[in-house]
Amino acid sequence: MAATPPITSGSAGSPEQNLDKMIKHQERMFGLEITKEIAKSQHDMLMSTAKTLGQSAEKA
After folding, report:
1. Does the pLDDT of residue 60 top 90, yes or no?
2. Closest by CA position to 42, among listed 34, 28, 60, 56
3. What string of H, E and C letters represents the secondary structure of the chain?
4. Where does the record place the region Disordered (predicted)?
5. Which of 14, 20, 21, 28 could form a disulfide with 6 if both were Cys (CB 3.0 to 4.6 A apart)?
């Protein structure tokens, strides 16, 4: 069976282009997720430090 030509309707590109776009999008979303997790970890650490300092100040 002969290879079918890519469908060029509207803004849709070849399946390879669409796959590349999807991969780039997923990489970007993964990067944002990692950034969010890092920010949450930093926030949790700072809150823990602030709580510890507050408790130390109450004892002093």
Report:
1. no
2. 34
3. CCCCCCCCCCCCCCHHHHHHHHHHHHHHHHHHHHHHHHHHHHHHHHHHHHHHHHHHHHHC
4. 1-20
5. 14
Report whether pLDDT(40) > 60.
yes
State the pLDDT confidence band at 12, using cuts at 50, 70 and 90. low
**What's the full length of the chain, in residues?**
60
Place of tokens 């002093």: 60
Cα→Cα distances 21→6, 7, 10, 29, 31, Å:
16, 16, 16, 12, 15
